[in-house]
Amino acid sequence: MNILSKPLFILLSTLLLINSLSSKGQYLSPIKTDHKLKNQLDTIVNCSVVDYLSNNNTFSVSIGIYTKGHKTTYTYSKEKLPNADNYYNIGSVAKTFVGALLAQAVLDKKINLDDDIRKYLPGDYSNLQYSGHGIRVKHLANHTSALPKTFRSLPTKVVDSLRGLTIPEQVDYLGKYSRDNLFDDLRKVKPDTIPGTKFSYNSTAVMVLIALLESSYKDSYEHLISAYLKGHLGMHYTTPYLDESQINDVVQGHDNKGQPVPFANLRGFYFGPTMNSTINDMLIYIEANLKLNDRALGLTHQLTYGKDDGFGMGLGWMINRDERGVRYFYHDGNTKIGYNTLCVLYPTDDYGIVIMVNDTVDQRKVSELENDIRHQLLLYNRRQVQPSSSYRKEGLK
Fold first, then answer.
1. How many whole angstroms from its chain centre is CA 241?
2. Most CB contacts within 10 A, which of 23, 91, 194, 259?
């Protein structure tokens, strides 16, 4: 997309916002926003978000951008307009918080990344090895444990009966799956290859990691992660579970058909790691991950699997390089019951972005939104410095 002169670009963006036209020429609900178009970043975000909201099953978008010490928040909606302190469930982005707590446990000498996980498990788990190779703690965090994605398959009758329940009722039933249940089922599974050699995304393995952290600290994950986030990072509005007053501040989620779904606290060990947060709190997290003043966060960025010049894993964070060869860290999250989230860090550029939406249409669409914003920013900054046929490396401004 060509960057137009600033006055004309702002005018066109404003018209897009007012008319809310889809690519098919259909009029949608008017889009509300809390942001005025004051600069080029605003107009870039505005055009990209309006395009995202052209889908009839999308409703609200909240964005936080950190660039070179400056934090900016944006909220858009075709329904009730959220603010930067409203809660979203951020899905599997929660795995980066598990990675941070694991890193802190390493620093506290509670756990060792290279230890066989059986060192921290109660009883005999002779099944947890493949050709004499055990599963190491870091394999749980970087998705190379070689364990099955699900330890317990629900009987067909149970699945059918769950379909007849409301979402809160389904969550309540599955939430009764405890740490003891997880440990019992862990005795019945085994790795399908040598651990540490193959990436296979596995939320259940991360729940085993949470159980190990609880055992190591002799405390609940909820208390441990809340204490870490508040004490180390100053994040007071990020929590695995919301109380009744906090639920009142949740952005209404929707399913993939656009229907509202009730908020549900995903307790127990059946679901993957869960976390609720706000745009303002996630910007604190982004800044902390870019500045790396906290030692634990620095450890989460170290490569534990993969290649430095391609895809890899830290502790919780996925790592890759963009078209310029610049390293970035990322994680997305889809709860399946109302929300999609994406958080991306570009340390070289001193830039980070978090996008939260209250739909489950398609994680790829959220990634496309992030890519569109970033590419337009890169193009604009490149032209501000010097026209060139190749990317410069001054970074975002």
1. 16
2. 91
C-alpha 68 chain-centroid distance: 22
Cα angle 103, 109, 112; round to 5: 65
User: ∠ at Cα 272 (53, 92), nearest 5°?
Assistant: 35
DSSP for 133-199, please give it: EEPBHHHHHTT-S---S-S-PPPHHHHHHHHTS-HHHHHHHHTT--HHHHHHHHTT---SS-TTSS-
Which pLDDT value is given to residue 370?
97
Query: What is d(CA 351, CA 341) in angstroms, rounded to the nearest whole number?
Result: 17
Which tokens in the block code for residue 67?
A: 């660039």
> What pLDDT, on a 0 to 100 scale, did the predictor assign at position 23?
39
CA distance 171 to 265: 8
How far, in Å, CA of 172 to CA of 257, rounded? 23
Structure confidence by residue, pLDDT tens digits, 35-92: 888 999 999 999 999 999 999 999 999 999 999 999 999 999 999 999 999 999 999 9
* Residue at 29: amino acid letter: S
**Model confidence at 13: pLDDT above 90:** no
- What whole-number distance in Å separates Cα of residue 307 and Cα of residue 320? 9
Q: Read off φ and ψ for residue 176, nearest 5 degrees.
A: -80, -10
10 band by pLDDT with thresholds 50, 70 and 90:
very low
Interatomic CA distance for residues 337 and 162, integer angstroms: 15
- The tokens for 111 are 């756990």
Classify residue 168 by burial, with Cβ atoms within 10 Å: 0-12, 13-18, 19+. middle
Nearest to 77 by CA among 31, 46, 35, 36: 31
Which pTM does this prediction carry? 0.89
Q: Are 211 and 182 in contact (CB under 8 A)?
A: yes
Say what the pLDDT of residue 384 is.
Answer: 75
**Helix residue ranges per DSSP H, the chain:** 6-19, 40-52, 94-107, 137-141, 156-163, 167-174, 179-186, 203-217, 221-228, 244-247, 279-291, 295-300, 363-385
Q: How far apart are CA 42 and CA 27, in angstroms?
A: 23
Q: Can you give the length of the chain in residues?
A: 397
- Indicate the residue type of 235: M
- For residues 332-351, give the mean pLDDT: 95
Report how far Cα 137 is from the mean position of its chain's Cα atoms. 21
